[in-house]
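Example record for the data management plan.
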Amino acid sequence: MPRWKPEDVRTAAYDIAKRLDGLGVPYEMLSANLHLSIPFTASVSGGGAVYNAKPPAYARDCREGLTAPLVHVPATFSASINTLFVKSQDKEASTEDRVRGKIVISEGFSFPGKILEFEQKGALGVIAINPGADSHWGICTSIWGTPDLDDLPRKPTIPVAAVNNPDGQKLVEIAKAGGEVTLKTEMEQGWYESLVPVVTIPGNNEPEKFVLLHGHYDSWDVGVGDNATGDATMLEIARVLWTNKSDLKRSVRIAWWPGHSTGRYAGSTWYADAFALDLDENCVAQVNCDSPGCRWATEFRDVSWMKEAEAYCQKTIMDVTGLDSHGERPHRAGDYAFNNIGLSSFFMLSSTMPEELRKEKDFYAVGGCGGNIAWHTEHDLIEIADRDILLRDIKVYLAAVMGVANADVLPFDWRAQVSEFSETIYRYQKAAGDLADLGQAADAASDLMAVLDAFYSAVKNDTLAAKDANEVIQRLARILVPVNHTNQPRFRHDPALPVQPLPAIAVAQELAEHGPETLGFAQTQMVRGTNRVAAALRDAARLVRSVTP
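Corresponding structural encoding:
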């Protein structure tokens, strides 16, 4: 990777500004002081050979080299993006006794859950075997955005590197033979002034209310599919909306983030912190734009959206493209830095290639580029983009953003989310058996569904003013998104680790696995979690009742 310089990112921001100037679209250029980790080179030496590698951001700088025995902890490669961020290492092979004092080599990407576990068990370093012929850039910290004092204990303190699969298999043989390797990583880390271009297209009816459309402009290597296509999408939407601003009821705010790849979404997290109260009061939805318009991406499958937005997103995609679409719970990834505030959210990655084509090409699961395995490599070049697909995806994003901005009543159906809550609570109760009682949470969900039915009936029959309905729909997000997507209190950021539905009571799935030494503690956690969930659902029901005729 060419030597990165702070001015490179500022140059990219100024390029966006230059293009906005050329389009006649006004903007702000905000300045953010971000803590970033810049990876340069890495290598692994062993068995008389030197293997090139890529260090992930936030690995420890170890340019002097770390020599230690190598131990292989087998892991599975993800079959789809649904399991991409889930730890998959063999539990029996990753015991503390086995990995302590060793350099661990394991299959998969250098994602934070894997690295954090190995570090906590005493590994001196980690080598990730990527699935194919290329190694991929990434970031290995579980800290979301710039760390605060409470986050610092989770900052990685070990060197980490990614190698391609052929080299990884050779290194596994060294591990099996009881050999040792030398791991070197070259990193820079510190505070960097970073620029955040922001466009605001004012609405005419409720200018204080806004939809936030956003995506990152920093990329690995050239980064055409991740995320130059997204940056182009937002520029075009800025142009179209500014030209047609007289048609907007609510405002649309468009932001380009730095620090996505080198600070674990540091730019969007900074914005979530710096403008938290404005977002809390006025943002009606956030829409993430990452990796649209890539070649072969002819399907809308595994698209991220929160459940209350599902029907709206599916209708929008169908109206624009004529295609059915399938969505999933947003991963704790991308620039979803706003869950703690409680924003209804949709999209992250958009279109992707068909599963049959991916298998035909022998591609493995990646986190962007429409499924192209050039993701996070030096091969993410102009041929990854497809003009016709990009135009289609731009239309989807534009229609989705304008639809929310211009809706008389915000198009989010909270009955869909509460129905999912009831299903989740039932599933957790079934897993827990008589070891826990989730009855209060189940009753609260049932009551909330009943009052929501009356609320949406009043909306449909025009017996409830649109302004009152919109206030309730927005405030429901502030209550229900955090209880479904966060463990931390509002205005703090959960780690970049998978978050299960209704996480406060997700331990219900594991109660049967606890022995007498820990069962009581787990049950105490369940009581507290059930209280949190039931209280949130009751608060939501009171809010809905307060305006329903």
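Summary line stored alongside the record: The chain has three domains: 6-35+192-406, 39-191, 414-545.
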